[in-house]
Every structure is written in C-alpha cells, then in structure tokens.
Amino acid sequence: MADRQTNLLIGTLMLDRRSADQPGHLTEDGEELELTYLLRRDAWGAGLAFEAATAALRTAAAELPDQPVLVITQTANHRSLKLATRLGFQPVGTFEAFGAQQTLATAHLHTFDPTPTTPPTTERTEEMPSNRDQAR
After folding, report:
1. Digits of tens for pLDDT over the chain (136 positions)?
2. Which of 132, 76, 120, 133 is nearest to 101 (CA)?
3. At residue 49, what are phi and psi to the nearest 5 degrees?
4. CB–CB of 20/30 below 8 Å?
5. Collapsing DSSP states into helix, strand and coil, what is residue 38?
6. Contacts of 18 (CB under 8 A, 6+ apart)
7. pLDDT of residue 103
8. Where would I find the H helices in 1-136?
9. 3-class DSSP state for residue 6?
C-alpha cells in the first residue's frame, strides 16, 4: 500500500493461502485463504487498512468460489482485532504462536461480494383500488 500523496510505502496487505504446516486453521487440511496486513505506525487510524482489505476481499469474492477467509492476529493487538471485526470477521479460537496468544477469526468470502446474489424481481404488482374507487 502506498500513500496517495507521496506514493511512499505505508504498508502491505496480502490475501494468500495459509500454509498447512502453520498453526491456526479451520480444517485439518489447512490451506485456507488468509488476509494479512501490516501498516507503518504513522498510517494507523486513517482507515487505509480497512479500505485496502475491503477492495482485496471484494475482488477475491468476484473471482473465487466461496470459501472461508482467515485473519490471525495477536490477541493483545486490540486495533487489529477491531479492524477484523469491522471487516466482518468473527473470532473462532485462539492458539499460541510466536510467544504470544493469537486469535483466529473467520468470514466467508461471499460476504464481501458486492454483486447481488439474486436478480431483482421484475414482477408487476397490481395497484389496490383506492377507497374512492371502491365506493362507486
């Protein structure tokens, strides 16, 4: 991610498969999609991670079949947990890694698809007669 004004690097965001040899999975097979992000401290609080994550997840939802997406962050990182919740991820468990407790949160990819899942109805509804018409 780059600053819009200066084009300087302010962080990274990736949507990739979580390796099965790492802890923190929903299934025994692993390899779920994982959203990861890291921003410079001076870029925190501006909504940039939310904006970038939303764009990445919407793009993936339009291109990939529905599947779970993971976010894993240190449980002590309240800002990251708040971002995950704001994006629609729900905590499902914790585990130890890198010397700290990690929170595993998940959402289904289809929840980020901006296109409607069902086409709008084209049925025509009949107008109800008004009281004046009924009195005739």
Report:
1. 988 889 999 999 999 999 999 999 998 888 899 999 999 999 989 899 999 999 999 999 999 999 999 999 999 999 999 999 999 999 999 999 999 999 999 999 999 988 755 554 554 444 444 444 444 4
2. 76
3. -65, -40
4. yes
5. strand
6. 24, 25, 30, 31, 32, 33, 34, 70, 72
7. 98
8. 48-63, 78-87, 131-135
9. coil
Handedness of CA 81, 85, 87, 91 (dihedral sign): positive
Gap between the Cα atoms of 53 and 65, Å rounded: 18
| Burial class of residue 90, CB neighbours in 10 A (0-12, 13-18, 19+) | exposed
Please name the residue that has the structure tokens 């002590």: 76
pTM tops 0.70: yes
Q: Which residues, other chains included, contact 83 with Cβ-Cβ below 8 Å and sequence gap of 6+? A: 37, 49, 50, 53
HSE at residue 79, side-chain half, CA atoms within 13 A, is 11
Can you tell me which residue has the tokens 């595993």? Answer: 104
Residue with tokens 């990736």: 14
Answer yes or no: are the C-beta atoms of 49 and 20 closer than 8 Å. no
What DSSP assignment string belongs to 62-84? HHS---EEEEEEETT-HHHHHHH
